[in-house]
Structures are given as structure tokens and as C-alpha cells.
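TICKET: design request
STATUS: open
ATTACHED STRUCTURE:
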């Protein structure tokens, strides 16, 4: 079973709530580090022979988010079938960090909950619009191959924006928050 195959608890329909207020409760990331690497919007760059994955992976690692070995080939590079997961992890992590930065600036506002709910609604709409595969390219067929792999084999465009299925998106979000909290907890234990 791959890292993000749907399980019984993840088969429920993903609603418009990707990020929730409770996701940010007690989330105390000490420092919000900006991404300094190249290829900020390069989800297609790898298709052109340009690879910014190492920089993105290193950035995620500094946040305590390590890429699962199941996403990597023996060479250490991201597997073609896992690129959508990797890119979505990077992009959604950025949304989480930006949202946390916004939350910090409004937390003392008397209308905090209303304002933060609006911020979350906007971020959720953005994530769903730009990260969710609505065309079924990430669909897993009974033979354990994805629809997109047939397009790739024919040299055709297949999921060029590296979008993920609803289940994969839900699992990516859980994975990111788990590691952000795990890293935070490990840091606080050392003090």
C-alpha cells in the first residue's frame, strides 16, 4: 500500500474545508522561514528537464517535513508517480505557513474568528481550485496504475499541474500538520 492510498477513514467526501481553525490551534511554529530556492511555481519545470526538487525537499526538511521514501526512486529522485504528491506537499505547506502568518497578525483582533474563517475559506477555495485533480488523472486503476501513467507512456500531457485526488489532498494536509506538530513537540522537549 502506498503512502496515500485511501483508507476507510479517508474515503469520506472532501468538503470545502481543507484547512480548519482547529488545524491551527496550538500550532506554534517558532519561525516562519521563507523559501529561498528557485522554482517557486515550477510544477512543470521537471517536465522541461529543470529540477528544483532538491531545493524544495531541503526547505520542507528544515520545517520538519521529510518526504516519504516511498515517493523516491533508488536514485533518491522523486518517482514520476509521486510528483503530484511532492508538489502538492510543497504548495500546501506554503499555504499553511502563509495562513499561520496571517493568523498571527489578527489573533488579537476582536473579530478574530470571523476574519480567520474568511481567510481559511479563501485559502481552501484556492487549494481546491489549484491542487485538486478534477479530471481523474490520479485515479488508481485495478492493476495499480494511474490514468496519468498511460498518457505519460504515450508522451502526452498528463496532469501537468501535478494535481492530486481528493483522498491524496486530505492525506497530504494531515501529513504536513502531523510533521509540523511533531517537529514542534520535539523542539519543546529539548528545551
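STATUS: resolved
RESOLUTION: sequence designed for all positions
ATTACHED SEQUENCE:
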Amino acid at each position: 500500500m502506498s503512502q496515500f492510498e485511501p483508507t476507510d477513514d479517508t474515503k469520506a467526501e472532501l468538503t470545502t474545508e481543507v484547512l480548519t481553525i482547529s488545524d491551527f490551534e496550538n500550532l506554534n511554529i517558532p519561525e516562519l522561514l521563507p523559501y529561498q530556492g528557485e522554482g517557486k511555481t515550477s510544477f512543470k519545470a521537471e517536465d522541461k528537464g529543470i529540477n528544483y526538487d532538491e531545493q524544495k525537499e531541503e526547505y520542507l526538511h528544515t520545517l520538519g517535513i521529510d518526504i516519504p521514501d516511498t515517493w523516491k526512486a533508488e536514485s533518491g529522485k522523486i518517482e514520476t508517480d509521486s510528483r503530484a504528491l511532492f508538489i502538492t506537499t510543497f504548495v500546501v505547506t506554503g499555504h499553511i505557513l502563509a495562513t499561520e502568518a496571517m493568523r498571527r497578525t489578527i489573533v488579537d483582533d476582536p473579530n478574530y474568528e470571523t476574519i480567520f474563517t474568511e481567510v481559511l475559506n479563501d485559502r481552501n477555495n484556492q487549494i481546491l481550485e489549484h491542487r485538486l485533480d478534477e479530471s481523474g488523472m490520479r485515479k488508481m486503476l485495478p492493476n495499480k496504475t494511474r490514468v496519468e501513467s498511460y498518457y505519460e507512456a504515450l508522451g502526452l500531457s498528463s496532469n501537468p499541474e501535478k494535481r492530486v485526488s481528493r483522498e491524496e489532498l486530505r492525506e497530504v494536509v494531515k501529513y504536513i500538520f502531523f510533521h509540523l506538530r511533531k517537529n514542534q513537540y520535539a523542539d519543546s522537549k529539548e528545551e
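CLOSING REMARK: The longest helix spans residues 166-190. Residues 5-13, 187-191 have pLDDT under 50 and may be disordered.
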